[in-house]
Amino acid sequence: GESVGLHLPTLSVQEGDNSIINCAYSNSASDYFIWYKQESGKGPQFIIDIRSNMDKRQGQRVTVLLNKTVKHLSLQIAATQPGDSAVYFCAEISRDSNYQLIWGAGTKLIIKP
Amino acid sequence: DAGVTQSPTHLIKTRGQQVTLRCSPKSGHDTVSWYQQALGQGPQFIFQYYEEEERQRGNFPDRFSGHQFPNYSSELNVNALLLGDSALYLCASSLQGGDTDTQYFGPGTRLTVL
User: Fold this and answer.
1) Which residues of chain B have pLDDT under 70?
2) Chain A neighbors of B42, CB-CB under 8 A
């Protein structure tokens, strides 16, 4: 079956530097990808999404890149701030999953002062 | 514009008891999905409600049931609680036929089963 996974469970970044969080997926038929941020004790917060017919999408301080050739997704956070500390999940949607979210395990982003 | 709300925030129950969790979707949304999230894990899909019916279900036993009301709010019921049911229960809302399939999450209900 399809799966979505993350390369690193924890990522430590210096405040002010850029962060890159990676995600691999296995279902080449996935239609839609979403990045969520989850702070401790809170529900996941939508960050940015990208459809499979795109390879890049930019938001405020965040950029998502999609490489369908190697089935890889990344989230780039510019000028990382203390408030960016959280667990980041990538999730995918496809017809194979009846358009339900398939989640990765999450990457914990730690900001060093 | 109110986001997704859930109640209660925290709940402590003992094994064998029953629990009801509540969710109000984001304004304008008509679909509610429920997830169980164990500590350090990604959310696991329980089921989804649309037009007051369960449309899809994940790999959860029948002890987990739900309901959606005409105002689109929803309840999650869990019977015969087990210790392993301790988790954060998340509700997410979305709009069928909307521009995206994006689900917006509530803050969750932390359930502890003793």
Assistant:
1) 1, 97-101
2) 89, 91, 103-106
What residue type is assigned to position B71 of the chain? Answer: N
- CB contact under 8 Å between B100 and A104, yes or no, is no
Q: Which residue of B has its CA nearest to A86?
A: B40
Q: Is it the case that residue A7 has pLDDT exceeding 50? A: no
Residues in Cβ contact with A113 at an 8 Å cutoff, skipping those fewer than 6 apart: A15, A82
As a three-state string, the secondary structure of chain B is: CCCCEEECCEEEECCCCCEEEEEECCCCCCEEEEEEECCCCCCEEEEEEECCEEEEECCCCCCEEEEECCCCCEEEEECCCCHHHCEEEEEEEECCCCCCCCCEECCCEEEEEC
Contacts of A108 (CB under 8 A, 6+ apart): A9, A10, A11, A86, A87, A88
- Torsion angle of alpha carbons A71, A106, B67, B51, nearest 10°? -30
Spatial neighbors of B49 by CB under 8 A, at least 6 apart, are: B31, B32, B33, B55, B66, B67, B68, B74
The predicted structure's pLDDT at residue A4: 57
Residue B1 is predicted with a pLDDT of 59
Query: At residue B108, what are phi and psi to the nearest 5 degrees?
Result: 95, 160
Residue A2 identity (one-letter amino acid): E
Q: Is the Cβ pair A103, B42 closer than 8 Å? A: yes
